[in-house]
Amino acid sequence: MKALSLHIGLNYVNPDAYDGWDGELAGCINDANSMKSIADSQGFTSATLIDSQATCANVTNKISEICRQLDNGDFFLLTYSGHGGQLVDNTGEETDGLNETWCLWDRQFIDNEIYNLLSQFKTGVRIFISSDSCHSGTVIRAFLRQIRKIKGADKVNYVNEFNKFINSSPRNLPVLKLRNMDNAFDGVLKKRSMPESQAIKNYEKNKNGYDAIRNLAGSKQASRAAMNASVIYISGCQDTQSSYDGPVNGAFTTELLNVWNNGSFNGNYPSFHSQIRDMIANPNQVPEYMKLGPVAAAYENSKPYSTAVVSAGTTGSNGTAGSNGSTGSGSVTGATQDKPSMTTSPGYNRQDPAPVFQVNKGSNPYYYVEFSTDNSLFTYNNSNRIFFGNPDGKTPNWFATWGDRFTASTYQLPDNVWNTLKNAEKIYYRIGSTSSPSGAWNDLKVSFYGEDYPTAPSITLSDTRSRSGNGSAGSRPDAFISSASIHGSVGSDGTNQLDDVKTVQQLLNEIKDSDGGSATAPLSVDGHCDPDTIAAIRRFQNKQEFAGTGLIKINSSLLHMLLNKSGREQ
Q1: Helix (H, G, I), strand (E, B) or coil at 129
Q2: Best CA proximity match to 566, nearest among 491, 482, 510, 484
Q3: Which residue in 17, 408, 63, 358 sits closest to 194, CA to CA?
Q4: CB under 8 Å to 554, separation ≥6 — which residues?
Q5: Residue 8 pLDDT
Q6: Alpha carbons within 13 A on the beta-carbon side of 393
Q7: What is the per-residue pLDDT for 454?
């Protein structure tokens, strides 16, 4: 079994290739050397490409050379540390009109090129990639959104509009109100992204060359479809965010090294990602997790960087990123068994004291908790999380105690958090446990992983007391269903309160099949918004010529149509 690794680090790029910009950073070469040290300790045969060595030709040739050497069961580790960038896509392949890039010494290395190289690896080769760089694209995304707003249309040819702008009035670049990408986080750290004005100039000057390279590399989607190797990829941030530099290592690499803890980490790839993610204190930098190709469960559930041959197992979906980039559930022994859990009454009056949770820590002695008014935020895949303590004045929707670890058998939500979150329809919660009292997150276990966010437990909030005399929470009486009203949205990404879902299920069952109902094969009126319920909502929408969103909102035309067809409303 062969194990080969390549570590790319650029503290500088060639200013002649980037219109005078040298991209100065501090920690990228250190990152490459740190990752090489991990690889060496795990038995990899390692190589580095540093600064001027890291040309696009050298990177391409080295990866191709490694590709030719590896067979089924072999392992390739690829790490990159440096600036990230984005280029306008002229093929229509990218839904956002942008290609992600690595800023190598002599030019930007386009993601199509990376995908093309990865697709050439043989079946059964394991590949693990980590990238401590930005993929934000703030400038061009913002500009294209601005054009769409001005045009007042949803289907604007972004590329043509962009090219018109830079070709006809490059002196008008200041109207973009460009934000300096070298602004410091907390006055200390630089963002690892090419400055926005520089990105535009670089594309403008080299447009024909970049377009030709992208065309030669071929379609990214085609490369993904042809992917035979098993690829796991962890990036330093989301596509819409920035990775930060540091005086020694980058912020992402720093926490990766802390979690790895000189090899004492014993979890799998999803838990490795989740611990790194939770260690980064900056909410504007949330590491991403992605799988490409047929990733077997045995590989995903193995210890990161382990070169031991793994047995074949259940294959994950080809070219997916869990659920919207979530961590994936995993099933490795010790990483997901003996999970912690919390319980409390499922219903609370908004005038009640803050909820108290009974805590089961499992085998670990320390735990932390997370609360949100939106269960999809547990996927860590968007920028909609508004943390308590954020200075932007927005109402928080997320509270987590990552900085504190608890040992008590009960946990009470702080009053200030309760008083803010209780205005929502539901509060969702999660618990994680660790064997470490502080610092590292050894033996991390969580009650559920990101892709399982629909199963997140919750408490339902109301302004009328619904709890019975014994303190347990009950649902509203069945008479509520006959009133045929809902208090929250039902269906895909809805709030899905128990009685609301029951109401919709019952209404669909009362509608004949010819009107898109479920009379012949009735739904279980159990209050669980399962795939059958969502499919039934979509079937009704399609029959009534509504958009098939799978979601019914309060006081919507769709709800009134549902009431009409069921005979509840004439």
Answers
A1: strand
A2: 510
A3: 17
A4: 486, 487, 488, 489
A5: 95
A6: 0
A7: 84
Q: Measured between alpha carbons, how far is 521 from 509 in angstroms, rounded to an integer?
A: 8
User: Hey, what are 397's tokens?
Assistant: 């929707």
User: Which regions of 408-511 does DSSP assign to beta strands (E)?
Assistant: 410-412, 426-434, 445-446, 458-462, 490-491
Place of tokens 């800023």: 103
> H-helix or E-strand containing 49?
strand 45-50
DSSP letters of 57-93? HHHHHHHHHHHHH--TT-EEEEEEES-EEEEE-SSS-
Q: How many other C-beta atoms are found inside a 10 Å radius of the C-beta of residue 24? A: 13
> Cβ(70)–Cβ(1) under 8 Å?
no
- Total count of residues recorded for the chain: 570
Q: What are the C-alpha distances in Å from 469 to residues 89, 106, 465?
A: 63, 72, 10
**DSSP H or E stretch at residue 130:** strand 126-132
In whole angstroms, give the CA distance from residue 521 to residue 534. Answer: 14
Question: Strand 126-132 to strand 75-81: parallel, antiparallel, or no bridges (unpaired)?
Answer: parallel
Q: How far is the C-alpha of 14 from the C-alpha of 21, rounded, in Å?
A: 8
Q: How far apart are CA 78 and CA 179, in angstroms?
A: 31
**Would the CA dihedral through 155, 93, 452, 255 be positive or negative?**
negative
Print burial letters for 496-514: b (CB count within 10 Å at least 16), e (below 16).
Answer: bbbbbbbbbbbbbbbbeee
Taking only Cα atoms into account, the Rg of the chain, rounded to an integer number of angstroms, comes to 26
Q: Give the pLDDT confidence score for residue 67 in this predicted structure.
A: 94
Distance between CA 530 and CA 524 in Å, rounded? 10
Cβ neighbour number for residue 270 with a 10 Å cutoff: 28
Partners of 458 in beta bridges? 428
pLDDT computed for residue 480 by the predictor: 33
The pLDDT score that the predictor gives to residue 470 is 31
**pLDDT attached to residue 5:** 97
Does the predicted TM-score (pTM) go above 0.70? no
State how far the Cα of 456 lies from the Cα of 17, in Å rounded to an integer. Answer: 49
**Strand 426-434 vs strand 445-446: parallel, antiparallel, or unpaired?**
antiparallel
Q: Where are the alpha helices (DSSP H) in 287-336?
A: 297-300
| Whole-number Å distance between alpha carbons of 194 and 209 | 19
Instruction: Supply the pLDDT for residue 435.
Output: 87
Q: For every residue of 383-436, which 3-state class applies, written as one string?
A: CCCCECCCCCCCCCCEEECCCCCECCCEEECCHHHHHHHCCCCEEEEEEEEECC
* H or E element at residue 279: helix 269-279
CA distance 250 to 40: 20
Look at residue 531 and give its three-state secondary structure: helix
User: Strand, helix or coil at 370?
Assistant: strand
Strand partners, 100: 86
Angstrom CA distances, 199 to 100, 180, 213, 237, stand at 12, 12, 17, 19
The pLDDT tens digits for 71-85 are 999 999 999 998 877
Question: For position 74, what pLDDT does the model report?
Answer: 95
Q: Which residues of the chain have pLDDT under 50?
A: 94-96, 135-188, 312-337, 465-483, 570
Cα–Cα dist 383/386, whole Å? 8
What distance in Å separates the CA atoms of residue 198 and residue 176, rounded to the nearest whole number? 13
Contact 21, 195 (CB under 8 A): yes
